TrEMBL record, chains A, B:
Transmembrane segments: none annotated. It comes from Anopheles epiroticus. Belongs to the peptidase S51 family. It catalyses: Dipeptidase E catalyzes the hydrolysis of dipeptides Asp-|-Xaa. It does not act on peptides with N-terminal Glu, Asn or Gln, nor does it cleave isoaspartyl peptides. Pfam families: Peptidase_S51. This is dipeptidase E. SUPFAM superfamilies: Class I glutamine amidotransferase-like. It is found in: Cytoplasm. One of its GO terms (molecular function) is serine-type peptidase activity.
Amino acid sequence: MGKRQLLLMSSSAVHGFGYLEHAEEDLTSFLQQHSVQRVLFVPYALTDHDAYTEKVGSVLRKLGFSCTGIHTQPDPVAAVHAAEAIYIGGGNTFLLLRTLYERQLVAAIRERVLQHGVPYVGSSAGTNVATRSIQTTNDMPIVQPPSFEALALVPFNINPHYIDPDVNGKHKGETRQERINQFHELNESPVLGLREGTALFVDGDRATLVGPHPSVPGECYDARLFRKGQESAVYKVGSDLSFLLKQ
Amino acid sequence: MGKRQLLLMSSSAVHGFGYLEHAEEDLTSFLQQHSVQRVLFVPYALTDHDAYTEKVGSVLRKLGFSCTGIHTQPDPVAAVHAAEAIYIGGGNTFLLLRTLYERQLVAAIRERVLQHGVPYVGSSAGTNVATRSIQTTNDMPIVQPPSFEALALVPFNINPHYIDPDVNGKHKGETRQERINQFHELNESPVLGLREGTALFVDGDRATLVGPHPSVPGECYDARLFRKGQESAVYKVGSDLSFLLKQ
């Protein structure tokens, strides 16, 4: 996996920032360091592919990159093979993964990223599908993919939009921690809870938590790692999480 | 469907009440009016079947009913055929539905409830599986059922633990309304958002929203109905929702 280059964002929207604004610096340096000029955007997690590609493309153009929606290409698999960089946006994870399977893109993207080092950017659902499965998504199962197994660019699970329990809350639905604990009653894979505003940067066999440093007292961008049968552990922005890649 | 008898609760836990306490009156009258003495409890939505059956059974015994866990029966399908009433508890909806399929219980329960009028009680995940599909669950897909199609005791979807968006919230993950709207981009079925504390009572072709009357200013037990391409509509406790059964 020495070639793997990933930027896995928790979300595109973050409180206090414009759309993708929190990630502009990391996104720009990630793409520039791989001499990327054109980004292949995958808008399958939402239904209006044109509007979604325009929304993300307008940010990318401002940062100096061009952007093509994979849905405009006659042969999506060929587009993946020709891509300088692949960016999969958020939305509904089930819809996204079903479409990736329908269009024969799971194996194609996996090969390009793992074997050829094509840079991969994911956000929210695009981060979920980059992991070993979509089993720790927060989304509703609005459509049924043939499998919950995903691109497996990393050998663990991520929970995007991670949020701690509201200690003053009156709502009795399961907290995010309780849901992840239920996952671990039946699955072994570690789950990295990535808060909005943070991302996991993966360079080959090294993984680092990136994100803003808290500017407001009480703001927290720590990630929380859940492992089966263990207490969860907290990692600050800047932490080396490479151990998660050694499964 | 003239024989159908359902009590579909949003949740077992409600702020300000003990476990199942909010539902004691409705549950007791529902079971008594059908002369039920023994309840067959289905604990498959959680992994510890004995503990879960004991938790619900202790409430049922206090109310005057006996309770048997289906997992203690040598032949679960035969247990369904012999049941006076079937109660499916909450937990993880994917795990619950997968187990119902594995044990050949989907068709068996459906037949008993729809053709023979065996009273059915559901809570949370047990309410999700009573509808046409589990596509509007809030749960994580911790295991994969063979299908998202469920018991279809009613011809629409329910979102249990329904909650309105937090207008002061900083979290940018999709709101419940946004998730249900995504469902409606790809599906036709109406979705009834059932708040914690409320339930849908179905007697043949009549459906009524039941629940506590607000005792604290600001508390709200209204249900919110989402239909594809329409503004959502609010229904108070006591409302006749029979129109939802005519699909």
